[in-house]
User: What shape does this take?
Amino acid sequence: MIEEYRRLAIFVAVVDAGSFSEAGRRLKLSTASVSHHISKLESKLGVALFFRSTRSLSLTQEGQAMLGAARRMIAAGDEALDAHADNSEQPVGALRVAIPAFGQSTPIYQQLWSFALQHPMVSISLRSSDTPIDLIKDGVDVAIRLGVLADSSLKSRRISEFNRLLVAAPEYLAKQKPIRTLKDLSLCDFIAVAALPDAVQLISGKEDASVEFENVRLEVDTIAAAISAVKAGLGLRGLPEMEIRSDLDAGTLVQVLPEWQLPLLNIYAVWLENGPQKKLTRRLIDHLVSGST
Assistant: This one.
């Protein structure tokens, strides 16, 4: 009976992941092992649960009919473990967390490490990426997101905020005519980050403006790469102050048009209201918030 429950859990994981290989990655099983368990479950039930092809995987009618009950079984097990995690002085469980790749010395990372130290029976799988993820598709319990949140069904809670500065390398600025106006700024080379807007919002007192750069010199996919490109003298960009403070102090980066400021960006935790490990998820979020105050 226990093996059948396990195979039902693997069945749900395959549906959520969209493939045997991705389900195996999440469950830390080989693709062959996942396939074996699904085949055994199909043999036990006497029906095929999936239509399989080299390019796609979809549920059969029998698979669709069984999915709801299988999910309820998983939810009941998660609820039992979650209740223990909430009431125990030593909570147990597993959390999957997605967090931006930059800022590894920031309080958020440090609070995550301290949470792991305080709760040794909670395993944490951390995904660091500057590219937004899909919590459902990627099987994530909590994601840290920056800036304005898009409308969605996700729950969210503000953790803290961070400042950005528009900067360039001295070597780059030495080759340009002096940057005194927003028009001068718009003619500079800009380092773009994929999935982030190229237009820059700036504030000076009660005045605000949007600057469209005419020359996107380079596009990268991480903040770390953007910092490296700016320091190499390829252009300018607004960057998190916490990541470049040492470079500003050393003079390897210089703030551009300091009378114009970039707006503060909020940092949020987002999660699924009915996701697994609900109480353990909230415990982690409470810990992150407490570390920012």
User: Anything to note?
Assistant: The first helix runs from residue 2 to 17.
